Amino acid sequence: MMPTGVIAAARVTHASGSVDELAAVSPDNQRSAVAQLHTVPDIEEAYVLSTCNRVEVYVVSPTAGVGRAALEEFFGPADDESVVYTDHDESLQHLLRVATGLESVVLGEDQIIGQVRDAYEDAREADGIGSMLEAAVTKAIHVGERARTETEINEGIVSLGSAATSLAARDVNLEGATALVVGAGEMGQLAGRSLVDNGVETLLVANRTVDRADHLARELAADGTTTDAIPLEALSTVTPTADIVVTATGSTEPVLTEPAFDDDGSTQIVVDLGQPRDVAPAVDSLSSVTVHDLDDLESITDETREQRADAAREVEAMIDHEFDVLCEQYKRARADEVIAAMYESAERMKQRELETAFSKLEANGDDLSPGQREIIESMADALVSQLLAPPTKSLRDAAAEDDWSTINTALQLFDPDFQEDTMQSSLFTTGGSVGVGTADDD
């Protein structure tokens, strides 16, 4: 059967909404979000990417309107102005940009490519990945890997963790300082590694699971650096001793509040990478504490963008090329499905005519040997192949040129029962690529 579906997407990111807007639309986990979307009527495929600075949803549905409605419901808790909706082509291009790091807070950061992969595995396990999103997401991962191996897009600061260290270093001398990392996940690991590399004397790691904090503390131990693991419930006993605090947990409630700090006039820098916030807003009112959140990292990331401008242009060109390749891949798949339908129709006719011919010969008393039957069948196969070779080439050329009226005519010629309105409701072009839907859905 010819694949049907058009990709539609929507997102709230650091560029379109606040930390609180992101928190409002963040799902409990990516897998459950995909499973939920899959229960919506006519949503055939779904992919959800949820990180500390973006929530993006991609769906495949018979028409663009169906996909848009599902996305509007998903992003209902967010302010309308913070949600960005994209059509088929723009959604594909954006996904490629995300995987390469061009849409990240830190331009070219490495963490996002792993997050795209993890979201892909979650979507697969939730049965959200079909032929259209399989091609799109695997292409995005491929382009993300190319960008990092063939350009210098990830030279220097490569994560929010290292950006947080750079931001803290503007106010505090990291050499000989005491740092506290709250959260032992990937972001916490990156922040901890960056702090150690920049000379902190003592690194404390707090986490809900102490074994994980201990594992990270031992992993980050280096010459001249003392590390220790702290249970999350003991935060208030160690927070006053830290010159720098970096938080990166998945908690839905703040893990640091005013009582955890001694407002004694000493300087403390807190960088909150949590989403939702790990640090209660009231902490920033303390005279001795300066709190930075994701929005405050822009000064660091702007510098990084300037440094990587040339690499970004290389990646942009790479994306343009790979997007064209992806569009051609979709077109070939569509054409091949149509050609397969044509060959199936011809095969049915061939078998019907062979059975008629063999029956007539047998009725006349002409008993055919197995070898004779094989010769006749081979001749029929050769005739079908030769007759269908020119239209096969024409159909592939038509798909490459977005000439779906030719394909529609071919299907009607080879399958009189084929309904033209089925083709018209299942094929349309959007900016050079092939999607499925109707032109006036939006």
CATH fold title of the largest domain? Beta Polymerase, domain 2
CATH class of the largest domain: Alpha Beta
Strand order of the largest sheet: 7-6-5-8-9-10
Name the overall outline.
Answer: elongated
Strand content: 5-15%
Distance between the termini: 26 Å
Oligomer: single chain
Query: How big is the Rg?
Result: 29 Å
Tally of helical segments: 15
Characterize the biggest β-sheet.
6 strands, parallel
Q: Specify the CATH architecture of the largest domain.
A: 2-Layer Sandwich
Approximate helicity band: 40-55%
Poorly predicted tracts of residues: 418-442
State the secondary-structure class: alpha/beta
- In CATH terms, the superfamily of the largest domain is Glutamyl-tRNA reductase, N-terminal domain
Mean pLDDT, all residues: 85
The strand count comes to 12
Q: How do the helices and strands follow one another from N- to C-terminus? A: EHHEEHEHHHHEHEHEHEEEHHHHHEE
User: What's the number of domains?
Assistant: 3
SSE arrangement:
Blueprint: E1 6-13, H1 19-25, H2 30-38, E2 45-51, E3 54-61, H3 64-74, E4 84-86, H4 88-100, H5 111-125, H6 131-150, H7 160-169, E5 178-182, H8 186-197, E6 202-207, H9 210-220, E7 226-231, H10 235-238, E8 244-247, E9 268-272, E10 289-292, H11 298-307, H12 309-363, H13 370-400, H14 404-414, H15 420-426, E11 428-430, E12 433-435
Parallel strand pairs: 5-6, 5-8, 6-7, 8-9, 9-10
Antiparallel strand pairs: 1-3, 1-4, 2-3, 11-12
